[in-house]
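A reminder from the course coordinator: this example appears on the midterm review sheet, so study it carefully.

Given structure:
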């Protein structure tokens, strides 16, 4: 039987990379649930408002996926609202698909499972490396609410599930709320254009500490693997590249890609959100001078999210033993995660 994937959030960084991987793999019919049209030939876009149950139900009328991959979320002002809205997204999709023979549902969450929500992010962290069997934190967390929605629906409908917890996602996407590669690429381009020092904006702890990231392509491969591997059923998995690095090592390598020098680290956090607050007109000049696509700075860079990742004051890296024991042995070089994303952003005329 051919697999039919429904990707919820098909135009985001996780969803679009998953769609590309499934198309390359073959043997998949792919539908994408999102507000905007997928640019990928081979993906049927079903447009809807994920927060509106009726809109989701109309979009999914007559659709019979075998596998659902939930990669979307909507940022709200408080974690209470995050829980209501993002738990609702999962519930809306699974309610609309009741009784249609789903075989597997995969949910993409992240390392905030271990670090807590934005309101109390990384204030208290468990010992590293983070392991999937660690207990939930006592905080409200919309990831937990989304998981519980899936557990409840799985008990009712009889499908298997998997949860995937990437660290900082690196990859190609435009207009994504959590795209560090595009954010750092734009920051470096502005520094190169203006002569501004390319200084690390994060905390001393992040400059020095061991950490890891997740290439969106390795996340896509793990999603497809777990959805089609019986031994991986009903488990949560960390997913990172497989190497550990320190930002003091990686920062000069990112600078070298753009042909600039990495400034000496000041020893203090210098958030990009404030540093780049007035950079809109500078970016418009860069776009015009290099004949780039006229995409507003606020759509291609997510300074706030990169600040949250690089401003942490705790060490953060993840254990991958659970999926490795079950046969998922993929590895991704982290420097290449960034440079490959930069290459593609350049090829598509997003950055100079």
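Designed residues:
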């Amino acid at each position: 039987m051919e697999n039919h994937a429904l990707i919820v959030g098909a135009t985001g960084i996780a969803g679009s990379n998953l769609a590309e991987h499934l198309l390359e793999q073959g043997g998949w019919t792919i539908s994408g649930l999102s507000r905007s049209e997928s640019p990928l030939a081979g993906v049927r876009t079903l447009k809807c408002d994920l927060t509106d149950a009726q809109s989701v139900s109309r979009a999914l009328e007559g659709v019979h996926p075998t596998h659902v991959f939930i990669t979307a979320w909507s940022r709200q002002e408080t974690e209470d609202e995050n829980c209501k809205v993002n738990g609702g997204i999962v519930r809306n999709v699974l309610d609309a698909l009741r009784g249609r023979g789903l075989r597997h549902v995969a949910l993409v969450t992240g390392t905030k499972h271990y670090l807590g929500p934005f309101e109390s992010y990384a204030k208290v962290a468990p010992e590293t490396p983070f392991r999937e069997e660690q207990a939930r934190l006592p905080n409200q967390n919309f990831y937990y609410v989304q998981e519980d929605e899936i557990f409840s629906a799985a008990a009712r409908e009889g499908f298997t599930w998997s949860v995937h917890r990437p660290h900082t996602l690196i990859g190609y996407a435009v207009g994504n709320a959590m795209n560090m590669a595009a954010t750092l690429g734009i920051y470096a381009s502005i520094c190169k254009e203006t002569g501004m020092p390319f200084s690390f904006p994060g905390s001393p702890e992040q400059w020095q500490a061991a950490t890891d990231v997740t290439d969106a392509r390795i996340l896509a491969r793990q999603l497809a693997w777990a959805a089609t591997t019986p031994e991986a059923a009903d488990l949560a998995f960390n997913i990172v590249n497989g190497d550990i690095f320190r930002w003091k090592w990686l920062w000069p390598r990112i600078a070298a890609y753009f042909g600039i020098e990495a400034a000496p680290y000041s020893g203090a956090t210098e958030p990009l959100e404030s540093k780049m607050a007035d950079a809109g007109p500078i970016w418009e000049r860069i776009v015009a001078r290099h004949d780039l696509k006229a995409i507003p700075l606020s759509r291609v860079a997510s300074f706030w999210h990169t600040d949250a990742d690089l401003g942490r004051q705790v060490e953060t890296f993840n254990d991958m033993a659970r999926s490795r024991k079950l046969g998922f042995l993929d590895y991704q070089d982290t420097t290449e995660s960034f440079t490959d994303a930069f290459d593609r952003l350049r090829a598509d005329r997003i950055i100079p």
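The beta strands are 3-8, 28-34, 43-47, 67-70, 104-108, 160-166, 169-170, 214-215, 235-239. The first strand starts at residue 3 and ends at 8.
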